[in-house]
Amino acid sequence: YEIPEQPLREFAQILADRVKMLGEDSVQVMGDPERIVSRPALGVGCIGPDREIVARGADVLIVCYDGASYWNVRERLFEQGAAIITVEHGTSEMPGMENMCRHLAEVFPQVEFQYFAAHPQPWTVRGR
């Protein structure tokens, strides 16, 4: 993707505002808040952008949190020069799962489908 150039802090704020309606009160960010970004790459679920996407010019990666991925993915990509914005795994999949439920209901009208937004929704406590 390409977006207008903006500080990482501002782009992260836009994403935090968007996920708030999904029940997540914050996003985690790695990188200089004043760094100018314009080429985000998006990964949802358990698979996200990797070093190949950084090599293609992405300067900020939007990934989901999987505990095992912190050291072997996020920190490694940060060391390669990418800024990282992390959204919780369940939150990253919510819009797609809701759309899948609607799609399945259209394809199989004889079956009732329900979407449940029941994953744990994290919240943040900041130090005083």
What is the compact description of this entry?
With 128 residues, this protein is of the alpha/beta class. The protein has helices at 8-20, 51-55, 69-79, 89-107; strands spanning 6-7, 28-30, 36-37, 40-42, 60-65, 83-88.
Descriptive overview:
The chain is of the alpha/beta class and 128 residues long. Helix content is 38%, strand content 17%. It is built from four helices and six strands. It has helices at residues 8-20, 51-55, 69-79, 89-107; strands spanning 6-7, 28-30, 36-37, 40-42, 60-65, 83-88. β5 (60-65), α3 and β6 (83-88) form a beta-alpha-beta unit. The protein starts with 5 loop residues before the first strand and ends in a 21-residue tail after the last helix. The mean pLDDT is 85.
Percent range for β-strand residues: 15-25%
**Class inferred from helices and paired strands:** alpha/beta
From the spread of the alpha carbons, the general shape counts as: globular
| Total of DSSP H or I helical runs spanning 4+ residues | 4
Q: Strand order of the main beta sheet, please? A: 2-6-5-4
Tally of extended strands?
6
Report the order of strands and helices: EHEEEHEHEH
N- and C-termini, Cα separation: 37 Å
